[in-house]
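Not sure how to ask, but would you mind making up any protein sequence you like and the tokens describing how it folds?
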Amino acid sequence: MRVPVLSHDAVVAAVPPLLAYDAVRDAFVRHAHGEWTMQPKVYVTNYPAGDFRAMPALGGGHALLKWVTSFPGNPARGLPTVTGLVLLSNAETGELEAVLDAAAVTALRTAAAGVIAAETLGRREGSTAVVGLGVNGAETARMLRARGSDPLVWDVDHDRLAVVAEELGVRPAEHIEQALAADAVVTVTPGRAILFRSGSLGPGQHVSLMGADGPGKAEIAVEELVRATVFCDDWEQASHGGELAAAVAAGVLRREDVAQLGDVLGGEAEGRTSGDEITVFDSTGLAIQDLAIARAAVEQTDGLDLPTIEL
């Protein structure tokens, strides 16, 4: 049995930003309607170095398992923060259909989720910004461009900021405060520092918080969450290991206070209700999003001469 292997470059080439956007949006809705299922991600921790995550999902005739890492200190060693593999199987026979690079899949679905939330929950025709230009942040800026936006971008590493801005043809912010003041901000940082402190969000502003995807991480103060209308990708994950966990533990945020983005997209929950409303989206990253990207990549490369492994 020979199984196709899709490298990072092969995944990125097969799934351009607009296809990734549509695939992930569809996955949100299918999950909300119960057509696609998943279990909360399992963390195997080795803090402070990093963690490993196992993420299963089922839908569209396929089953998926992603085994992925997050080691924030790796760039200083010349290593990527995120590595891992995605296994895609036939849900009827159990046959392994493809092996994909997890970092590429993760970058595409993270970008798609952040942009979908910003467009769905933010004000129309507002300014946009991306804070944090690692692999996932750069992909987010690329997706905003593909969707017709002209985002400001910011990164603490000024060399990386200059490289990404020139590569994507986007505008570097003069300082982080300029980026954080945009009408819709997508933050893709390691989650080690609070970006939005109490009282910092302005009327009508939206923030997609993509960095705090595990215990102990945060990009926004709990007090600021209380001021906003809050949305998440999945309550079970977000309330235990995402941006919302501290607010839930403090008793200031309850399940009935938070709508899931898939429910908004599927018409089962209300989104933004006024121009002055502050909206916040907490993303923890979902296996059904990975499934959407993996399916798209395999479909787009069907018939191509890809490398294989023999099992």
In short: Residues 179 and 203 are 16 Å apart (CA to CA).
